[in-house]
Amino acid sequence: MKRKFLYILFLLLSQFSFSQNKLSWQGYFSFNEVKDISESSTAVFAASENALFTKDATTNTTKTITTVDGLSGQTISAMHYSETFKKTIVGYENGLMIVINEADGSMLKVVDIINKQLAPNLKKINHFMEHNGLVYVSCDFGIVQFNLTTLKFGDTYFIGDNGAEISVKQTTFFNGFIYAATSSGIRSADIANPNLNDFKQWSVVNTGDWSSVESLDAELIAINSSGYIHRFNTNNFVGFSQLPQASVDMRAKNHNLFITIKNAVYVYSNQMVLIRQISNAQVLDNTINFTCATSVGNVIFIGTKEKGLFSSSLSSSSAFVNSTPSGPARNNIFSMDVTPSVLWTVYGDYDTYYNPYDLDSYGVSKYNTSGWLNISYSDVYNAKSMTRVIVNPKNEKQVYASSFFSGLLRIENDVPNLLYNEKNSGLESITTEGPNYIDVRINATAFDKAGNLWVTNSRIKNGLKVLKTNGQWGSYAMTSILDDAQASSYSSILVDKNSVKWIGTNRDGVVGFNETNNTFKKMTFGADAGNLPVADVRALAIDTKNQLWIGTTKGLRVLSNVGNFQNDSQLKANPIIIMEDNLAQELLYEQFITTIAVDGANNKWIGTSDSGVFMVSPNGQETKYHFTNSNSPLPSNAINDIKINSTTGEVFIATNKGLISFGGIATEANEDLSNVYVYPNPVRPTYSGTVKVAGLLDKANIKITDIEGNLVYETTSEGGTIEWDTTAFGKYKVSSGVYMIFISAQDGGETKVKKVMIIR
């Protein structure tokens, strides 16, 4: 049994990439939306929204680069690989450039374009063109020259009329001239001219709005914004072929020209003879949209907006293969649930006012030791806007996903098998839009200790529902406690140890409900009505001391004891007052709090709408971490959800631009000491992290001695795990040898002894 437990533990630690570094991060990014591609003689380089991946055509290996490695969480708009300089250049919509050195993986962030005194919406990088050690960066204001040797910017070319800013989509070099496709004509200049920063040196070759220009051996090709392909005839561009749609990309590679429109790729020879046409239905189906295409040797690679990168033989019509690293369906993960062995995510959304009408169709995703499983929109009965997902704690193979438009989806053994809606359950559609309008808004869900599933049903009178273990539905009216139940939406629901349900609302603060005596109580805005800073509550969490932490759109409040529900006629929450710069201040004053999670040591992980993540001590008096996209791998400061793996302590943080995790060690306390373990063990000379002792009781006493009985460390656990930095009370590193770990419960009724070997 013990060996089986350790084997499961190893799988869990491997699965969730628990690092031996205290400040460790792991990325779980989607690579499905390919923004741009580049290539070397042996590999293709692809950029998704805010991550990169490389596919080596010779070894068939894939490598990924994310914010954990140093990329920005901003949206990528262009990329280029320089085979001569062995560098990858990444361009962003906000004007940021990152240069990645292939030799050592180092990254240089170049902010010159960001710092230009220009309107922010003009700084987008559209294209890179390399020529003689220089990269010409096409931007929405003009062209910037970047030196690949010095890694410094050179001149900036404002080539619009009278030197005005102009959007440059693409540049190319042809017969000694640089050509630029712009929103106001194709413009050219002698590349040897030392005064290219003088707009007068640029000539207008053709007027009009142009999307691309590219040189193909002896040909110079341009496409205008309506999709008309033109050929240069030494004086100007002459149209010769009309595409069925506007082009989204054009590039030359290996004497071929690849022109991409949303539903097809056209491959031309260097004589501009069409040699192959590939439709999206040939690659996968007619629902996908192409974004770009290129080739490496005889392999064609096509990027898509929804399904990543596909590859096939260029010279034959063999089947296309998906070459995308596994990941969630998209980066904007709205909510998730985490157990010791599985992670579920959903992608639905609503705005600040609970408007779900930007309805998504992304389905549901699962992550475990087998990797990612993405369940498609069609497989979830076309349920839209999935906003919550919950795993049945009594049956991990049963999962429920809330749709904020279509009802409640049941998934069993990874297969959706029932969509509860207004026709087959106690769930109800909103009625304020007329009798024929169907809109079943299910959001927050929670299981009670008996295994019943409590469900919030927004914008109706009977907004609290329960799906009982026998399959029957129960319904509770909210009209007695809410000012206007048919206008109310619900953000969250919890069930405490006394089976009281706590519900976050958008108009009436927090509602508590005891089904035993059918009692409702609420805390809302105002000192005499509950003392919340605002009535709009977005997050709830109950900690190990039975305190209810309440996140609102205007700050944080704490109810000191959920057990007061029965006795207090008016429940009252209070702010946490901290000292900062010798001034008393309210913790997270005015912050829009989106989510709260409690780890095994009773620390609080608090997500905000625009300020990142705060990790505070159990009483909130100490902010231990404040992670943002500036000081951590967070891809965005807009936090959608936080969940914690109770076994490993790993903290999963979902943002609107990607999912990452922080390798915490605060695990939940165990009921006994039968499963205590130590890792790593042995501690090898190359290891620089801490030793963890896990599987502990809360408030257990831990003493570590050398083999002769000399005490080198002592502590009391908070939760299920402690760390030892392998020093003698922080003074010096202990020497090689076997060290004894003596563990005893707080009352002394249970003890355990473990050993760890340290090799220096």
UniProtKB/TrEMBL annotation:
Residues forming the PorZ N-terminal beta-propeller domain are 44-203
Q: Does the keyword Nucleotidyltransferase apply?
A: no
Task: Name the source's superkingdom.
Answer: Bacteria
| Key words of the record | Signal
Q: Which Pfam families match?
A: PorZ_N_b_propeller
Q: Which residues form the signal peptide?
A: 1-19
Question: Does Signal count among this protein's keywords?
Answer: yes
What protein am I looking at?
Por secretion system C-terminal sorting domain-containing protein
The taxonomy runs: Bacteria, Pseudomonadati, Bacteroidota, Flavobacteriia, Flavobacteriales
